[in-house]
Design a protein that fits this description.
It comes from Sitta europaea (Eurasian nuthatch). GO terms for molecular function: sulfotransferase activity. Keywords: Carbohydrate metabolism, Glycoprotein, Golgi apparatus, Membrane, Signal-anchor, Transferase, Transmembrane, Transmembrane helix. It is a single-pass type II membrane protein. The chain is mostly helical and 165 residues long. It contains 9 helices and 2 strands. It has a two-stranded parallel ribbon. The model has no long low-confidence stretch (mean pLDDT 81).
């Protein structure tokens, strides 16, 4: 697109006609992850300074109104899936299968570009971690997290999410 290579530009800096033309000229791929798994990964990567997962979650809940970190913001607020018609939605936990399909559709060699991924091992690990971390939270924190991520849970099939109830 004409301004694409000039500098880093946010989509909001374009007018509606330009946005429509630009989005229509690209293959749009959205990578999504269970919001509870995103919280766990953020905590484990040390992006929160809290000593426990429960206190980290409380920091997230307290800061949500003050433009919290992009690491834990709801996906629907970051990627606008209701406004942008994505061509592909790739779920974390199914990366090997979905990336293989995406590369094939793009006409790229599948085998040489994919890293070694073990989706079932990733899913099992996050299931176990989720159980451990979720048990640390108070009933109020669980309720508030479910409410905070309600639009992500409605927009994407995170059927096994601990926040889905």
């Amino acid at each position: 697109y004409r301004r694409l290579h000039a500098r880093e530009t946010r989509l909001s800096e374009f007018n509606q006609t330009e946005i429509k033309a630009m989005l229509g000229s690209y293959t749009k791929v959205l990578f999504v992850r269970d919001p509870f798994h995103r919280l766990i990964a953020t905590f484990l990567q040390g992006m929160g300074i809290s000593p426990s997962f429960s206190s980290f979650v409380q920091e997230v809940l307290d800061s949500r109104m003050n433009n919290g970190s992009m690491a834990w913001k709801p996906l629907v607020s970051l990627c606008q899936p209701c406004l942008v018609q994505y061509d592909y939605v790739v779920m974390f936990g199914f990366l090997r299968q979905e990336l293989g399909h995406l590369l094939h559709r793009a006409g790229l060699p599948v085998g040489s570009l994919l890293p070694e991924l073990s989706d079932s091992q990733v899913q099992w690990t996050y299931r176990w971690l989720s159980e451990q971390m979720f048990s640390e939270l108070s009933a109020q924190q669980k309720k508030e997290l479910s409410h905070f991520y309600r639009w992500d849970l409605a927009a994407f099939p995170f059927s096994g999410s601990f926040l889905a109830d």
